[in-house]
Design brief:
The protein is an alpha+beta fold. Helix content is 26%, strand content 43%. A six-stranded antiparallel β-barrel has the order 1-2-3-6-5-4. Strand 1 (10-20) and strand 2 (23-32) form a beta hairpin.
């Protein structure tokens, strides 16, 4: 099977929530990229859902609550995991995500290539 990932992923094990309307599911964030995320399959998951909101906190301390919220699309369900593609991020979440990826990659040039690839991909979609 050919690897289709175009963005580097960073491992980021953290509690997260998937939301759709009034429904909310607790899950575990497994990894993250500028383009999406991988989470565990929640209990009582509705496989008909395709578009949701993913949210998770970056801090363990409630004093300074840093979080990321993104609108996502389900790309695949496999091995009790859900692959999610990011559809939209608010500016604050995008800034936090960029910084998180930057810290985990440890290579500023690599991060800039990732960002350029994301911008190019979005231009092609328009």
């Amino acid at each position: 099977m050919r690897e289709r990932r175009q963005f580097l992923r960073v491992l980021f094990n953290r509690p997260a929530y998937l939301n759709h309307g009034e429904q909310s599911w607790s899950c575990q964030l497994l990894d993250l990229s500028l383009q999406g995320a991988l989470v565990t399959l929640p209990n009582d998951w509705d496989e008909e859902l395709t578009q949701l909101t993913l949210s998770f906190s970056l801090s363990d301390v409630a004093i300074e609550e840093l979080s990321i919220t993104m609108d996502v699309e389900v790309k695949h369900l496999r091995d009790q995991q859900i692959g999610l593609k990011c559809l939209h991020l608010d500016l604050e979440s995008a800034s936090h995500l960029k910084r998180l990826i930057e810290l985990n990659l440890g290579d500023d040039a690599l991060l800039h290539r990732e960002l350029e690839h994301l911008v190019d991909q979005n231009k092609e979609a328009d």
